[in-house]
Amino acid sequence: MQAIRHPGPASAERASVVACRAHPVTVTLRAGQSFGDALADGFAALGFSAGYLRLEAVPMRRLCFVQPAPAPGDGHAAWYSATVTLGAGAVIRTGGVHLGLRDGQPFTHCHGIWAGPDGVGRMGHLLPQDSIVGADCAVAGWGISGARLEVAEDPETRFALFRPRADGDPRSGGGRALLCSLRPNQDLGQATAALAARHDMGSARIEGIGSLVGTQFADGPMLESYATEMLVTEGRVTGAGARISAASVGFDGRFAQGRLAAGRNAVCVTVELLLIGDR
Asked: For the residues of 246-273, what is the DSSP string, one character each?
C-alpha cells in the first residue's frame, strides 16, 4: 500500500468518530442560490444543521470546481488545480456532500461527477459558494442529530479539515449512525471495518468522500496520482469487513469508477464518512 508524507507530526489518534442518528430526508435546493446556501437553507427548513446528501441530476446555472494537483512547494503534501467553471446547462450527475460548520457558519464539502453543456463528464471538488443552482430540485439524504462535522486546523496535514463533534442529544427516530473522519496512511476499508467493530455496528451502509494516495481498483486501471479525490458510490461494512465502490480523479483530470482493492487504498489527507446502521 502506498503512503504519503505530511509536513506535521502524525496524531496518535488515527480516526475520530461520534455516535449519532441519521434521519432520512429530502432536501429542496432552490434555483438562483449558491449551492452552499441552498444546501444549508434546505437542511435548516427541516430542522437540521448537519447532514449528508447523495446528489443525482442536480441542474446548475454555474458550476465551479477544482481537482487534485501536486504539492505547491509550501510544505503541503498536495494541493488543488486552478478553478474550472462550467456554464448554464451544467449538471451534477452524481455526488456526495457533507454539511457542517466552519467558524460557526454552515460549510459544505462536496465531491462529484458532473458535465457542462458539452456533455463531457468531469470529476472534482465543488466550490459551493461560487456554484449556482439552476432549478429547484429535491435531493435525498440524511439529516444528522447528535453530531456534526466542524472545521478545525489539522497540525499533521496543515489543512483545515472537517472533524466530527458531539452536538447535544440525538433526536428520536432515524437510524443509529457514526459520523467519522479518518487520518492519513491507513487503508480506507480496513479502517472503516475497525471503526464499525469498535462501536458494535454489525452491518452498515457507508457514505462519504475524501482523498486517497492513488486509487487502486479490484478490476480496472489504477489512478497513479499520489493524491486523488474520491466519492463513495456504494459501500457496506459487515462482520466480514468493508466492501467499497468509489469514483476517483487524479492530477490529469481522468476519473475512474469501480470496487476498491482490499488493503491497497491509503487515506491521503482525510476521508469523511457516515456509517448508517441496518435497522
From this structure: EEEE-TTS-EEEEEBPTT--BEEEEEEE
Domain check: are 245 and 126 in the same one? no
Residue 264 domain-assigned? yes
End-to-end CA distance of the chain: 34
**Type of residue at 248:** S
Lowest model confidence (mean pLDDT) among 72-81, 148-157, 262-271:
72-81
Q: 193, 262 in Cβ contact below 8 A?
A: no
For range 185-204, the mean pLDDT: 96
What are the strands, taking DSSP E only, across the chain? 15-29, 51-66, 68-70, 78-80, 84-86, 90-102, 105-115, 121-126, 132-133, 137-154, 159-167, 175-182, 204-212, 228-238, 241-249, 255-259, 267-277
- The tally of domains found in the chain comes to 2
Domain end, chosen from 90, 111, 141, is at 141
Domain assignment present for residue 9? The answer is no
- Nearest Cα residue to 182 out of 213, 204, 223: 213
pLDDT digits (tens, 9 = 90+) for 15-66: 999 999 999 999 999 999 999 999 999 999 999 999 999 999 999 999 999 9
Same domain, yes or no: 136 and 171: no
Q: Is the pLDDT of residue 279 over 80?
A: no
pLDDT digits (tens, 9 = 90+) for 1-19: 999 999 999 999 999 999 9
* Range list of H helices, the chain: 35-45, 188-198
- Based on the fold, state whether residues 150 and 270 are members of the same structural domain: yes
Residues 154 and 75 in one domain: no
Please give the DSSP secondary-structure letter assigned to residue 165: E
DSSP helix/strand/coil, 137? strand
